[in-house]
């Protein structure tokens, strides 16, 4: 699929600052955020169904979170204040997504939004969203979100109260 | 509105949705429960200011072509699906394209890991009594202050840096005097050899960094800048650019 310049331009003008802001918050680097932002748009716009998605804001925000967490995951650890270390700890928590590959079939079957556990943790712990709001964003039930977040408890102590 | 169990911040995603008028009824109710209308309004104003700053720093005409280029490059590297009589040829073709793509990335030094696909831009530093201050576009500066310009070519081989002030005067910064574009260096941020002192021209100074994959003449760009002044649109007007080129602007406001 070849996208017109206008589509890319419109998406960037409308949502670019949001995506950049999100990446900058997590990566804490203007240059890294600019790079990550462009990767987010490439990841989303290369999927044909993105253009007719009924919630592009949410889609892009989650993608920006995911891309940024993946970058943090690949980086070496550095000393941080409380928020920075929390994002890093979430990013570097063991990969539970591979263990859930089998569920991707179910996700597609039930047309559920792809729910990254790390994205859920970021929405809940860093952004202050309630479990109900995280569930609404990711297409999971509240109990499903809680179950996923508990799987990170060992590595992200802020989840101990769940 | 109640402050009981009030979260520390408005969740950023909800604020972004509020700005775009995409909140659900329950989400709006949640915001109204914990934050007053004036608090929401203040947060929105801050967000809108941030949007303007980001689009000025990472303008549409710079980022959109970059995204387009990355989409095209991504489309050239296709994963294998299923089996076919041509599977071996497809694998070979994909590998050739993949390594071609990778080799283009490895043209640049290892330290410039973000160089490929990054944004060409200029950075401006204000000389202080002790050292330099990194400025952001839209910063306020004064007559007599000295600025150091640096450019980041992001892989574009040719470019020029011009500026135009509030009185319509166009100044050529790079190259110093030549009539055609400069061959740009690619090793990270490159400082111009001379600092620039702000004069008493009014209102602002707009620095424009134009880059291209081909050499180009500078005079038409100077003329285009000046015509923006004549149209009363110097600060944000779109330049007439050479073919296959993009521009990045940095504005200093004067007091």
Q: Which helices and strands, and how do they pair?
A:
The complex is a heterodimer of chains A (162) and B (255).
Chain A: H1 5-27, H2 30-45, H3 56-74, H4 82-92, H5 101-109, H6 117-126, H7 131-138, H8 142-150
Helix pairs in contact in A: 1-2, 1-3, 2-3, 3-4, 4-6, 7-8
Chain B: H1 12-19, H2 25-34, H3 37-57, H4 60-76, H5 87-105, E1 121-128, E2 131-135, E3 139-141, E4 146-152, E5 158-165, E6 170-174, E7 182-183, E8 190-191, E9 196-197, E10 204-212, H6 219-230, E11 245-254
Helix pairs in contact in B: 1-3
Describe the structure.
The complex is a heterodimer of chains A (162) and B (255). With 162 residues, chain A is mainly alpha-helical. Chain A contains 8 helices and no strands. In chain A, helix 1 (5-27) packs across helix 3 (56-74), helix 3 (56-74) crosses helix 4 and helix 7 packs across helix 8. Mean pLDDT of chain A is 79; it is low at 79-83, 98-103 and 105-115. Chain B has 255 residues and is α+β, with helices and mostly antiparallel strands. Chain B is 34% helix and 24% strand. Chain B is built from 6 helices and 11 strands. In chain B, the strands form 2 sheets. In chain B, strands 3, 5, 6, 7, 10 and 11 form a 6-stranded mixed β-sheet that branches. In chain B, strands 1, 2, 4, 8 and 9 form a 5-stranded antiparallel β-sheet that branches. In chain B, a hairpin with a 2-residue loop joins strand 1 (121-128) and strand 2. Chain B is globular and about 65 Å long. Chain B starts with 11 loop residues before the first helix and ends with a strand. The relative contact order of chain B is 0.12. The model of chain B is unreliable at 80-117 (pLDDT under 50).
Keywords:
heterodimer; A: 162 residues; mainly alpha; 0% strand; B: 255 residues; alpha+beta; six-stranded mixed beta sheet; five-stranded antiparallel beta sheet; 6 helices; globular
